[in-house]
Structures are given as structure tokens and as C-alpha cells.
Amino acid sequence: ILFSVDVTDQVQARKRAETVERQASEHAQEMEAIFEAIADPLFIVDVQTGPRKVNRAARELIGISTTIATGQLRQVGPPFDLYDEQGHLLSRDAWPQTRILSGEVLQGATAVDVVIRLHDGRELNLSVTGAPVRAADGSIQSAVLVSRDVTARWQAEREQEQLERRTHDALEALLSMAQVIVQGPTEVDANDPPTTTTPDSLPQRTVAQPIAQRLVDLACEVLACKQIAVVMIKPGSGRMTPLAVAGLSKETEERWWREISSSHASDYLDEQNIRHLLADEVMILDLKQQPPLARDYYGFSFSLAIPILKENIIFGAMILDYGPQIHIYTQQEIALARAVARLITLVVEREHLLTEWAEARANEIALREANHLKDEFIGIAGHELRTPLTTIKA
């Protein structure tokens, strides 16, 4: 009876041990499945042996297979280098796994953003979190690291920073342009002479030209475009007059001034595009397809055309260009180009008003001089006639 009881206890103990072992195996399989299924790359790094385990996402990240994952990392080291956000190479002492194995917990505000440059040429931005795994005595045995690909976030942040910087630069440029308009033409010439010089064969520059030149120089700098040109178009005849240009070589610039001054709008644009300008529509022109095809258009190719209107009548156009490659014009670029065109409109209108005022002022001075001469003549004539009249009266 005692033997039977002892055998029964052994059988039950063995069954319990098998159950515990099976449950442990099932739990390990579940943990392995969860470990492999996690979408973020996971790394387990031992204090002594280095990388011990990596999940599927981590293997795909660094480009190694399941069979050689641990062995490759231990023997030849990780197939990547780490850099900080400023692009400086991190020493191994500064790697996240080293910091975790020294006792740091990286999470939340202490998460580390790094740039990983793989030896196959790929580059990713990662946010790394993790914590140490401690033994019963409190000593650190390994580190668990979770990496999250934040390349898209970094790119969005960089694009937002660039947008804010471009917006700030655009506002600064518009303020500078407004200051140029407020300045008189004499101040502009004295403080910052325009880079464009009218060839001797052309008429002397108008008052608007040096101011317009400052505006296109500023616009070219802010828009980061290759070249900008502004021409005036006489209503009715379509005859063009050059006003300002930036970004051309000296030889091309002189040819531009010379040829534009003797050209008509129809020499460069077809009737349909001219109608679009008359409708105050911004156009993106492939000038290589404009007639005549033999014309080189002074280096302009895939260009943005902004009409310059006064009282709904076109009297000019501003053309800007980013070079021979096709450029995608953003709404910000178009809005800034329109703002520059409006400022140039104000410059030209101010010149007309100043000219009219000067003519009216000259006429007023001439009238005053004529009245003065008339009064003087009458006074002299009256004096000269007084003597003979007195004699006749006597």
C-alpha cells in the first residue's frame, strides 16, 4: 500500500512538472510571437555577450536574416553607425544601449533621437527608448531597446522650419521692398545703386527703374530663383519697354535691354497667353514651346509669368525662372511674386504721379513768371507812356 501511494505521488508530481513545463513552453512561445509581432524594432543586449535577440522589425531595419542575426552582430558588430541630430558621429559610450546598461532609463522626455546610417547606404531617423533588466540582486543583466522610425516626423519638422524661415524671410523682404518704395529715387541711387545698367544705346533710365531693380533683386534672393525680368507693355500697341532684370550674365543682360526695347509682346507670347495676362491670370510658361522656337529667351525656360495691371489694363509683366529644370511653383512663391508685382505697380504709378506733379508744378511756375513779366511790362510801359502823355495834355 505504501509503495502504491509513493508511486502515485511520483506520477502526479511528474504530471504537474510536465504541466508546468508545457505552460512555460506555451508562455515562451507566446512571448516569442509577441516579440516578433511588435512593429517597432526591438533589441535585447546582454552586458557580457552583447546583442542577444532582435525581432523581425529590427532584422529588417538593419538588413540581416533570422539565422545569422545574433551571431553576425556579436562577431562583426552592428552594420550601422549612429549620429546625433546635428550629424555628429556618436562614440560607443554615447550609444543608447551603453547608457541603458549603465543604469539609465530612456523614456518620454529622456528618449534619444539618433540618425542611423546603415552600411548599405540607407539613413533613418530613430527615437530610441529602453530600460535595463536587473537580476534578483539588482545587478544589470541586459538592456531592452525599442526603436521607432521618426524619419517622417523629422522631415515634417524640417519642412515646417523651412516654411517658417521662408515666411520670415518673405516678410522681411516685403518690409525691405516697402522701404524701397518709401525712399525717393535719389536715396535709392545713393544708398544702393542698382546692379543693372541701361546700355548707352537705350534712352536714359526712368525714375522707376532703379527702384524696380531693387525690388527684383530682393525678390530673386527671397524666392531663391535663378532670374527675374520685368517689362512694361504699352496698351494698344503692345510695344515693350525693359524695366528691371536680375540673374543674367552681363552680355545677356545687355542684349535683353537692347532687344526688349525694340520688341512687342507678340514677339514672345502667343495670343492665348496674352489673353491670360489681360485676364490677370498667373501663368506657368514653357518658353521653349513659345513662338518663335528659335529664340533662346535669355536663359528663361520653365517660367512663372505675373501680370502687372493698372485699372484693369495690363501694362507690364514679371517673369521669374528657376533654371532649365521643371520647377513646382508653390502657392507661397506665387503669392510673393504677386506681391512684388503689386509693389512694382505702385512704383510705376508713383512715377507717373510725380511726373504729372512736376509738369503741373512747372506749368504753375511758368504761369507765375508770365504774370510777373506781364506786370513788369505793363509797369514799364505805363512809366514810359506817362511822359509823352503829360506833354500832350499840357
What does this molecule look like?
By secondary structure, the chain is of the alpha+beta class. 49% of the residues lie in helices and 20% in strands. It has 10 helices and 11 strands. It has helices at residues 2-37, 56-62, 69-76, 96-101, 151-182, 185-191, 208-223, 250-260, 271-278, 331-393; strands spanning 42-46, 50-54, 80-83, 112-118, 123-134, 140-149, 227-233, 240-246, 283-286, 302-310, 313-321. Strand 7 (227-233) and strand 8 (240-246) form a beta hairpin. The protein is elongated.
Task: Offer a concise description of the structure.
With 394 residues, the protein is α+β, with helices and mostly antiparallel strands. It is 49% helix and 20% strand. The strands form 2 sheets. Strands 2-1-6-5-4-3 form a 6-stranded antiparallel sheet, sandwiched between helices. A 5-stranded antiparallel sheet has the order 8-7-11-10-9, with helices on both faces.
